[in-house]
Amino acid sequence: MRIIVDVMSGDNAPLELIKGVCASAAENADVEYTLVGDTEVINEVSKENGLDISRFGIIHASDVIKMEDDPITAVRSRPDASMIKGLKALAAGEGDAFVSAGNTGALFTGASLIVKRAAGVRRTAIGALLPMDPPVLLLDAGANITVDASYLEQFAVMGTAYMRAIHGVESPRVGLLNNGSEECKGTALQLEAYKLLSECESINFVGNVEGNMVMGNKCDVLVTDGYTGNILLKGIEGMGKMMLLTMKELFYTNIKTKIAALLLKKELGGIKKKFDASEYGGAPILGVAKPVIKSHGSSKEKAFKNALRQAIFCARTGMSDDISAAVKALAESKKKAAGEQESSENN
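Predicted structure:
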């Protein structure tokens, strides 16, 4: 297995990303890695920081797509960018998965145009694992600003296949993000989506899920449009950081609270880990023909190593093939249902 890694994109590139690859390699002796970026810079940074990259391949890329660059323009006009070269290498069969901490829009666009969507997939989507216990897969987390009900149905099917393959959830519960739990709540989009999801035999639909219910173990997969999903994701991440900061300030107030912190060090560490988004590392772009993982733009060694772990899991489990098969089965069931309805009407 070979993982292709863009080590030039992101806020902490290339040092922290190369460190993440080295950490991943230390835990996965059977995995090969190809670094994509400026060869001279990669070798210089690695040498200065005592990082052994002798076992890694390198694809030279002289350009880098910045966070502020327009996604579509960048994908179409920057062939020498590390992200584009990495995606092209994946599409050409030079690796089994690709990881980048770069421009989300460019990665999403590039994955769809270069690696291509899996057969039958109408829209790819970013799947973010919300830092909860158990984790909740949010689809879409920011790629598709506007969607229709059929897209949300397909997101539900893809999310179900992902949670089953990667997290071993036998029958993932699917929820529809809404402003009320009642069937009659929401805009025309939510009302139509609720009907489609209720009738979809490929998923375990549990109904509408309100924002305050997301953290209550109500579902394993949460579907919504990318605009709403991204706001929810950023809100949860911000709340988690605020809670951790508040607890830290509380336990460092005086001698008594500092002693309490020492006594509860293990338990506090568990709480921090539960709300730490870096534990999951990366968000898969579901619906692409091969695994593409988006690591957070601010990723450091730990988060990037965990994003690589995601890529390895996705490649090993054949997650992309599972999603393609699930989407194909959905299309076939709809075709069969339409045929049966037509036959009934004719009779």
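Summary: The chain has a mean pLDDT of 91.
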